[in-house]
Specification:
Largest sheet of chain C: 4 strands, mixed
Radius of gyration of chain C: 23 Å
Number of helices of chain C: 16
Chains: A mainly alpha (295), B mainly alpha (279), C alpha+beta (425)
Distance between the termini of chain B: 40 Å
Number of strands of chain C: 13
Helix content of chain C: 40-55%
Order of helices and strands of chain B: HHHHHHHHHHHHHHH
CATH topology of the largest domain in chain C: D-Maltodextrin-Binding Protein, domain 2
Strand content of chain B: under 5%
CATH architecture of the largest domain in chain C: 3-Layer(aba) Sandwich
Number of helices of chain B: 15
CATH topology of the largest domain in chain B: MetI-like fold
Number of strands of chain B: 0
CATH class of the largest domain in chain B: Mainly Alpha
Number of domains of chain C: 2
Shape of chain C: globular
CATH architecture of the largest domain in chain B: Orthogonal Bundle
Oligomer: heterotrimer
Distance between the termini of chain C: 51 Å
Radius of gyration of chain B: 23 Å
């Protein structure tokens, strides 16, 4: 009995530091957000008192067309970037997992985007997107003829796709590495067996590789989606949310309200909404993907 | 050298992939070698910004010796913040995860629910209240204000938890019979086994800190405590960016990390690859 | 617990932080390439002059300046003297972060300031002086002489014979027709929806009799969305639709690099790049008159302010009067390319004195500059206006609806802050 209590004391001592950190840095700020969202709190103290204003922030938020535009853009981005980026990552992983010469070199090159600061990547891409004769448009003109160009960032219908392309380029190596691990976890004898059965490359992918990556896929779909919902830096530097709000995301909206114009109360309402939405999506995905897996 | 027949197509794809990654980076290097800022701006976007015409280290020397932007100081700040965060985060989160996975405390269940719930809280939505708290506590412009938020990491607890809960029961039991205390089991049995998960979490967090921008820029006042990522963006002046310096800074910032990862490539790839996705 | 953990870190941090002593002043300044040599000079010459009297100055350029000031405000760690961007002064003064400096400055200096610079530093219904800028800035139309002559366009040289809106439109149409010109006019859409959109575009509105807020009642409704403003922005939108305006994603160098644009509407900070790119073809054209009010140039910029927390006022007084002396003001201008903010410093400046290349900037600063509204709601005002301008110029949106939304945003913010007392009382 004495030993058991001592053991439990030890356990408590091991659990507490992390618990304190989580409480102080996640739980308390979250509760503060909830509280602020019902007040007209400002970032920098001001000479008039902060007051409780009920659900005003939420009411204003829900009728602001820009807010809904930001939500729609964020969802759209997540819906496009998740499959695009995962396809890119899986493709790259398959290539780098095959018996190519200089495989180590190619693997090193492929992870480079991960190691560059996002600010630099965005600046480089802004130049690539230039009109009328930036590098991408030069390629486009090859097909579409002299003088033709696409205003990738200036056209509301292509701006989001441009952000998708940039984001996928900047972060695909991460998912690629996880896919590589997944690929190496698939037992080689399964491939040998299917080869003996005369399976073509595509069939081997369809019946051995793809099922073998089931868990990896679930994990990556969830983290890529959740990551995509937080889109901010790329948009903030590249398009500032434009043109015409076409690339405003929910975090960008939150920052414009909370930091640029200092309306912390209002931004907190947005944050609380965002939290509820992300939780709901993560839970739904988890349930849906797990069920599908078990079926 | 001979390439096996069924490797020809993948090799071509690999070349395309490498070009796709390297071409934008080539522009970065080209600009960084051009000392003439006006010329950079004039030629931006044309073919000249991809093929170096001049090889001058002037931008690099400027970046390294600028007294206003002490590169060495920034590098030291980044290293200190990164290593402190990693060490504390791995220590605390693995201990907590071990209790949650193998312990006997009654509060394990509610704590686990709390961790899972916080897993879904996007850090970005907490930045404003965290900033105000840091202000109230007088912690702005310090190292700890940049370290502590990274230590509170539900994801890292969760990944450790997944790993620890799959440890064979017999192993734990055997250690207990040998007279190991709970902490000793963690220290001498669980941790030595968790090298892959430790390095996976370390790499994940490293990348997070490496790319951290918003938080450090909000909580620092000047070079004293600022990390590299924030320092570089200072070259994007009010209306005109100093492109040569920005790119030289970016290259200088990336090279040590690239070298580090190249040397540890095998372990690096192996560790990211094992970020808790098995089973 | 935390203490033990970070003891090492804290020790390291303490060893590196510096402490202020009486007689020692610290001033935070912006970290710009063009300003750097001036601040070095300021620190050295100040210390050479006053070091013997026991006052020393430490000028610290701060990268990512605005965020740093925000952080220092939250933590109460502001130095003796700071720099602020002019239009933000009112919101900082209202929050109580800075104190009045009218009593510290030599009355002669204030009397000598350009009118718009004086207005920029004067806050509130009590007209207290809070902020002083050593320089003024301005916008003009920069032109490519070769292209303009090729198009057969009259090139105005003085404020009196500036283009009217019709002449401007006509010039753009002629230039657009030239081979090799893609978009004739660069208005720096690539700067994005930031301060430039207010700095650079509110002069067009003011030239046409509009403004971004009523400066008596501090109500935006009826002013920012006035018919005059709708007309002004509609003209710009039409020009954009006609392909006259360089789009944001075309980059910065269409005028001075590729030379596919013949005109550029931007401030004097672009002078070095323009000079380098165009050489003798560069001409400085006064701002166009969009309407009755004639040509209007943007104005204002960064300047000195004193945080409320500063107590060392005797020494700060010495510093402010030194930094604002005619010689220092002229030196600032000659180093950075900005216009001196004191009338008596203009003749001392090589660029802006009579016969200098930049004479037109000095003229504009004296005759045609309208200060951006000095009101605590300015951050919200500028944000709302900038968003509207960028939206109007990025497609086929309803100009009136955009401006109505801006008006609503601004007025709502002012109401939320009880009118920002003592304003609106």
């Amino acid at each position: 009995m004495r030993i058991r209590t001592k053991g439990q004391g030890q356990e408590l001592a091991m659990l507490l530091p992390a618990l304190i950190f989580i409480t102080a840095l996640i739980v308390v700020p979250f509760l503060l957000s909830v509280w602020f969202s019902f007040t007209d709190q400002r970032l920098v103290p001001r000479p008039i008192p902060t007051k409780f204003i009920g659900a005003t922030n939420y009411e204003r938020m829900l009728v602001d067309p820009l807010f809904w535009q930001a939500i729609w853009n964020t969802v759209l981005f997540a819906l496009i970037v998740t499959p695009v980026q995962l396809a890119m990552s899986l493709g790259a992983a398959l290539i780098l997992n095959s018996a190519i010469p200089f495989r180590g070199f190619f693997r090193s090159v492929a992870i480079l985007p991960l190691l560059l600061p996002m600010t630099v990547i965005v600046s480089i891409w802004a130049v690539l997107f230039r009109i009328p004769s930036g590098p991408f448009n030069a390629v486009y003109q090859w097909f579409a003829g002299q003088g033709a160009y696409v205003d990738f960032l200036g056209n509301p219908s292509t701006a989001m796709l441009s952000v998708v392309a940039l984001s996928a380029w900047a972060t695909f190596p991460y998912q690629m590495l996880i896919y590589l691990a997944g690929l190496q976890d698939i037992p080689q004898d399964l491939y040998e067996a299917s080869k003996l059965d005369g399976a073509k490359a595509w069939q081997r992918f369809r019946y051995v590789t793809w099922p073998g990556l089931r868990n990896v896929n679930i994990f990556l779909i969830i983290i890529t989606t959740v990551g995509a919902l937080k889109l901010f830096t790329q948009v903030d530097i590249l398009t500032k949310g434009g043109p015409n709000g076409a690339t405003t995301t929910i975090i960008h909206y939150l920052f414009k309200q909370g930091y640029a114009t200092q309306k912390v109360g209002y931004a907190s309402a947005v944050a609380v909404f965002f939290f509820l939405a992300v939780t709901a999506i993560a839970l739904l995905q988890r349930r849906f993907l797990k069920n599908e897996g078990e079926a | 050298m001979r390439i096996p027949r069924d490797a020809i197509l993948p090799s071509l794809f690999a070349l395309v992939l490498a070009l796709g990654v390297l071409l934008p980076l080539l522009m970065m290097v080209t600009i960084s070698l051009n000392p003439n800022e006006q010329d950079i701006m004039v030629s931006m976007g044309s073919i000249r910004s991809f093929i170096p015409q001049v090889f001058s280290l002037q931008n690099y020397i400027e970046v390294w010796t600028d007294p206003v932007h002490p590169f060495g100081r920034y590098l030291a700040n980044t290293a200190l913040i990164t290593f402190s965060t990693l060490i504390l985060s791995i220590l605390f989160n693995s201990m907590a995860a071990f209790v949650l996975a193998q312990g006997t405390l009654a509060i394990r269940k509610p704590v686990m629910i709390l961790i899972l719930a916080t897993l879904a809280v996007p850090g970005e939505s907490l930045v404003l209240p965290q900033l105000m708290m840091a202000g109230w506590l007088g912690q702005i412009d310090s190292y700890q204000v940049q370290i502590v938020p990274g230590v509170a990491n539900a994801m890292s607890i969760f990944l450790f938890y997944q790993f620890f809960s799959r440890l064979p029961k017999e192993l734990i039991e055997a250690a207990r019979i040998d007279g190991f205390s709970f902490f000793q089991i963690y220290r001498h049995v669980a941790m030595p086994l968790s090298k892959p998960v430790i390095s996976a979490i370390a790499v994940l967090q490293f990348l997070e800190i490496w790319n951290a921008y918003l938080w450090p820029v909000m909580v620092t006042r000047g070079p004293e405590y600022r990390p590299l990522s924030v320092a570089m963006s200072a070259y994007f002046g009010t209306n005109q960016a100093a492109w040569g310096n920005i790119m030289a800074f970016a290259v200088s910032m990336a090279v040590p990390v690239i070298l580090f990862f190249l040397i540890l490539q095998r372990q690096f790839i192996a560790s990211v690859m094992s970020s808790g996705v098995k089973g | 617990m935390k203490h033990a953990l970070y003891a090492g870190v804290a020790v390291a941090a303490c060893a590196m932080s510096s402490h202020a002593f009486a007689g020692q002043l610290t001033a935070w300044v912006i970290d710009g390439d063009s300003e750097k040599p001036y601040f070095t000079q300021l620190e050295e010459s100040f210390n050479a002059t006053y070091g013997a009297e026991g006052i020393t100055l430490d000028v610290v350029p701060i990268p990512s300046y605005n965020e740093a000031i925000q952080a220092a405000t939250l933590s109460g760690g502001l130095p003796d003297v700071i720099m602020l961007d002019g239009p933000n002064m009112a919101s900082v003064a209202w929050a109580g972060t800075i104190q009045p400096i009218g009593d510290l400055l030599d009355p002669e200096i204030i009397a000598d300031l350009l009118p718009a610079i004086k207005a920029q530093g004067t806050y509130g219904p009590e007209e207290e002086f809070y902020f002083i800028s050593p320089y003024d800035s301005g916008t003009i139309l920069w032109g490519n002489k070769a292209l303009l002559e090729q198009a057969g366009v009259r090139i105005p040289t003085t404020v009196e014979d500036a283009w009217t809106r019709e002449e401007f439109a006509d010039a753009l149409a002629k230039l657009k027709a030239l081979p090799g010109i893609e978009w004739p006019l660069d208005v720096k859409m690539n700067y994005g929806a930031g301060e430039w959109m207010t700095y650079g575009f509110s002069p067009f509105a003011q030239s046409n009799g509009g403004d971004i807020i009523d400066r008596e009642t501090w109500v935006a409704e009826g002013t920012i969305n006035s018919d005059a403003n709708v007309a002004t922005l509609t003209t710009l939108q039409d020009w954009n639709k006609a392909g006259y305006i360089v789009p944001a994603s075309a980059g910065d160098n269409k005028f001075y690099g590729e030379k596919t644009a013949a005109l550029s509407w931007v401030g004097n900070w672009m002078w070095p790049a323009h000079r380098e790119g165009l050489g003798d073809d560069l001409v400085l054209i006064p701002p166009p008159a969009f309407g009755e009010a004639g040509p209007i140039s943007a104005n204002g910029g960064w300047g000195w302010a004193v945080p409320t927390s500063s107590t060392n006022l005797e020494d700060i007084k010495v510093f402010l009067n030194y930094a604002m002396s005619s010689e220092q003001v002229a030196a600032y201008a000659d180093t950075t390319g900005y216009v001196p903010s004191r009338a008596s410093a203009i003749p001392l400046s090589k660029t802006y004195g009579a016969g200098g290349d930049g004479e037109i900037f000095a003229k504009l600063a004296g005759c045609c500059a309208v200060v951006r509204p000095v009101h605590p709601a300015y951050p919200v005002i500028t944000n709302a206006w900038a968003t509207a301008v960028v939206n109007v110029l990025s497609g086929d949106v309803d100009v009136k609806a955009e401006l109505d939304r801006a008006a609503q945003t601004i007025d709502q913010d002012i109401a939320d802050n009880n009118g920002y007392p003592p304003f609106g009382q």
